[in-house]
Specification:
Helices cover 10% and strands 58% of the residues. Strands 11-12-13-14-15-16-17-18 form an 8-stranded antiparallel beta barrel. Strands 4-1-9-10 form a 4-stranded mixed β-sheet, with no helix packed on it. The protein has a 4-stranded antiparallel β-sheet with strand order 3-2-5-6, with no helix packed on it.
């Protein structure tokens, strides 16, 4: 019986340790690398696998390892080797922050699954000093679809009796980027913001007097890139809504009553920027100042939306031929 208790205790401890090691659980033994080249007709093979040539652009599965990755690159009769530096994976670096006492770091430390390689990478074929980049240059006719979740929304809006500030979380937006040249793109977004009190969806009960603020928007912008940083400038239309409500208990139910509301349409400028963390995930910041209040009697008055967002940028089309 005592032996059985020890085995149960040991099993519980091993389970706890295992489920607190983020990279061990989340990462697969391989990582998919998207490899591009700034020249045409380039092919590569990875490490010593000279029988498996891949014509670029290509997506290649490589084993995670503590060692750097060697890529052999060939164009016509010219061949050279490029060393890709290994790095700690996001699951190891960030995911283990949420394990008790950060024990996940110590569990994952000897495991090769904690490592990763940068993706995407762009082979800079004619530059031996900087043989590759960890971002991909934009190019003409590139099309991206964007889906974003606002997390941290500041409103300066018309409350009816005064202009004032509100702050909250959550929302949704979608849009696209189309590069009409190698450097510049047309960007359009449509979305909505809320001042929800917590940064994730959950049931919240309100009692007594409370207020809520919402906004919907659309923008048209021209943008460009500097390495991993993207920026846009354009115009936007916003529709802000402010509500004052009251919830009272009328046993066995609760009655929620709208006391007052103010809805306003605005027109102004749009400034956006985001940082490309990975090929598909970006951290964005948007500032939408409005100066013109639309309606039967248009007038000038300042208001704004300022919000941080988690943006997922999906490459829908990229021409294969590269300069």
């Amino acid at each position: 019986m005592i032996k059985g208790k020890y085995l149960i205790t040991l099993g519980i401890l091993l389970t706890v340790l295992l489920f607190n090691s983020c990279a061990t659980l989340v990462n697969t033994p391989t990582v998919s690398m998207d490899i591009y080249s700034d020249a045409d007709n380039v092919k590569v093979y990875v490490d010593n696998d000279s029988l498996s040539w891949h014509t670029l652009p290509a997506s290649i599965d490589v084993m995670r390892s503590k060692n750097n990755l060697m890529i052999t690159v060939q164009k016509d009769t010219t061949q050279k080797q490029i060393k890709i530096k290994r790095e700690n994976s996001t699951a190891f670096s960030v995911g283990n922050l949420f394990s008790p006492s950060c024990i996940g770091y110590f569990i994952d430390l000897p495991n090769p699954k904690r490592f990763s390689y940068p993706t995407p990478i762009l082979i800079n074929f004619d530059n031996n000093n900087k043989p590759y980049y960890t971002w991909i240059n934009s190019q003409k006719n590139l099309l991206n679809i964007k889906i974003s979740i606002p997390e941290g929304n500041h409103f300066y809006l018309n409350k009816g009796f005064e202009y004032g500030n509100t702050f909250g979380f959550l929302g949704i937006s979608a849009g696209f980027e189309y590069y009409f040249s190698d450097k510049y793109c047309l960007n359009m977004d449509f979305g909505g913001l809320t001042d929800f009190i917590i940064p994730f969806p959950a049931a919240v009960d309100y009692m007594g007097d409370y207020s809520r603020s919402f906004a919907t928007y659309g923008d048209v912008q021209i943008g460009s890139d500097y390495k991993r940083l993207h920026y846009d400038v354009g115009i936007q239309f916003t529709r802000t809504s402010y509500y004052e409500r009251e919830t009272v208990e009328l046993f066995p139910d609760y009655i929620d009553t709208l006391k007052y509301s103010k809805i306003q349409n605005n027109l102004g400028l749009a400034f956006s920027t985001y940082f490309r963390v990975t090929k598909n995930f970006n951290l964005g910041l948007n500032y939408y100042p409005s100066f013109l209040v639309l309606g039967n009697n248009p007038k000038f008055h300042y208001s704004h939306l300022l919000f941080f967002e988690l943006s997922f940028r999906i490459e829908t089309y990229r021409p294969k031929k590269r300069k």
